[in-house]
Amino acid sequence: MPQTLDEILHSALTLIDHADSGAITTVDTGVRTIVASTCPLADKLCRQQYEMGEGPIPSEVRHFDVVIADDLDTEQRWPHFAATAVAEGIRSLAAFQLYSNGDDVGALVLFSSTPQAFDTDAVVIGEALAAHAVIAMLGVRDGEQFRAGLASRDIIGQAKGIIMERYDVDAVQAFELLATLSQRENIPLRVVAKNLVETDHPTTSIT
Known about the structure:
Keywords: Kinase, Transcription, Transcription regulation, Transferase
Pfam families: ANTAR, GAF_2
Low-confidence stretches: none
CATH class of the largest domain: Alpha Beta
Protein name: GAF domain-containing protein
Structural class: alpha+beta
Oligomer: single chain
Domain ANTAR: 136-197
GO molecular function: kinase activity; RNA binding
């Protein structure tokens, strides 16, 4: 698993133009672990979030599939962590939920020295890499949270397919529509996707 997760992180830096560093981190039964990182700075920025109790890992990523900070120099959600990151030369970040189950959480976090580094294309790539990470972790660890994380991305994929077929748009545009609705309604992306799929293909009970 460590080698696979390292490869996922390095793929993120290769595929996402302005991603400079990243880490995969988990909190399981109170134990905080940096499972993989591309450099000491990414490791440090994840640990500082835990120490400060600020940042996407201890807050938003528990509830949302994707958390973006376009410019940490003006970020209001986590002022202390944002100031620390900017002092280290980091201006934007993207955090992707791997799983969330009670107090346990897993995240793929990417950092950039460029403001507004993570556009819709970057988010789509990050989502795909997060799904890959969940599969890798599921392969060696037993936990319902990993299955839930994988199921979440599967339902998002189904919802994207429905939108692509109905409105004749590509995968990036379909994801953008879902993300816009999620932000507008302040509803997790996976819930928006689940509602769409269930509305389009209602579950029928077999008696």
